[in-house]
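5'-3' exonuclease, pasting as requested.
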Amino acid sequence: MAPKGYLIIDGNSLGHYYNNGAKLTIGNAQVQAIFGFLKCVRSMCATYANLQPVVVWDGASWRKMLLRSYKEIRDRAVTPNELKLAAAKAEYKKQVPAIQKALRLMGVPQVSALNMEADDLGAIMADRYAAQGALVVLVTGDKDWLQLVGPKVIWKDPINDRMVTAKNFEDFTGVKTTRQFVEMKALAGDQGDSVPGVGGIGEKGAIDFLNTYGSVADFTSQCLLEKTIDIKKLPKKYRALVEDENKAIAFAGNINLVDLRSPARPAPVNLHIDKGTPDAAKLRLLCETLLFQSITKNFDEWISVFPRLRGTEAAPAAA
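Structure tokens follow.
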């Protein structure tokens, strides 16, 4: 029987968040990312019991072919804070194999592609499932995924307990449509992804601009074709969008970077789908090895939300 919908879970978004929480260690090894991740997935599966969970992971991004400096700032380790973040990332990477092993044993499918970020895979899957009439819940703290929200697609941030649907999209983002959200990101830029903004407009300025003119294309048409806007009376940063060719080029380039449905997006390379091998006994053993007592204490109840584990036999608790 086909599921009624899908939970598309952004692996690294959740993993990094829980890694940066209170430290849990076994000897010198940190395990807080593993523990937090598993508890979050379990909570989401309990809340959305009729939806099939799928975890998507980041590969190398095709966007670096468009912008060499894309996300470059995330890899810099010069200042004390950057060095601290780099150390935290290194500790997280050590925990990812255990997270993926646990998901495999829980029977939760995992998807990755050599050239794609989790965002891209989430967009491809959400569009496909929603077109089939299925409900899609995007589980992530990454606001870039908000552009995928629609009648059948919900954005759920379990980290801050926030949810965005088609009904409250404007209240949350400040713009009316997902296309305007993409244009807002393109105009404002994204410092975290090393994507420069266009003409110093900024996020608030971009929201005001789009609420006034609708879109960059409509604005350009009103200025140059319909002549309903007096260009000379516009603020300089707006005027530059029609007078400075470099600004127009920068905007078009940013659209390709931030639009998860961009025509520039290539087909997935080396798409890997790990359907998992559900095994309650091995999952219990892994959790016992990691000293996750709050999971193993009531293990049968804990795994009850994972349908693919039903019928597998859990090993007895360690004496």
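Note for the archive: The longest strand covers residues 5-10.
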